[in-house]
Amino acid sequence: MNQGQIAIVSGLPRSGTSMLMKMLEAGGMQVLTDNIREADKDNPKGYYEFEKVKQIEHDKSWLQDAEGKVVKMVSKLLQHLPPDYTYKVVFMRRRMEEILASQRKMLIRRGEPSDKVSDEQMAALFRKHLKRLKTWLDEQPNFEVIYVSYNEALVNPVEQARSVSQFFDGALDVESMVNIVDPTLYRQRK
User: Fold this and answer.
1) Alpha carbon distance 89, 6 (integer Å)
2) Does domain 5-95+142-184 have CATH number 2.40.40.20?
3) Which of 47, 95, 162, 190 is the most exposed place for a label (fewest CB within 10 A)?
């Protein structure tokens, strides 16, 4: 990656971003993570999060540590990234009903309410957010984006890994990336 460039894995919650972070790490990219959020039943191979990312609206100082690395960021935070850097964003997509089912299962497991908002309402909110975000991303001169399907990555990991490697100038080890994909973790199939 070039000077002043930051790679970002983004998407809706429960869209496969942790899997992609692990794939990029295996492919040879340096990840920015703090391992504060430990692996659990919902993400047995780890979350690959960096807590400071959640403070991006008020604290951007950590971005200098992200330069030349890949960091995970939920999609709603992308619009807080400053124009000082260029960003290569790998945006994960997953079937909406699977995202909602996975989120619900995680909330139930944690003992949190899972019925505050209906699936239909949440799906509508997510779709509206994704539409606005795509328009915004298309207008940003310092953002380059590739969209990756979680569902396709599980069915055809070679093709998805090759596409991601090409996005990063062919510099990644595709075979190592493919070896990370674990279809047994695809538990919320719809």
Assistant:
1) 8
2) no
3) 190
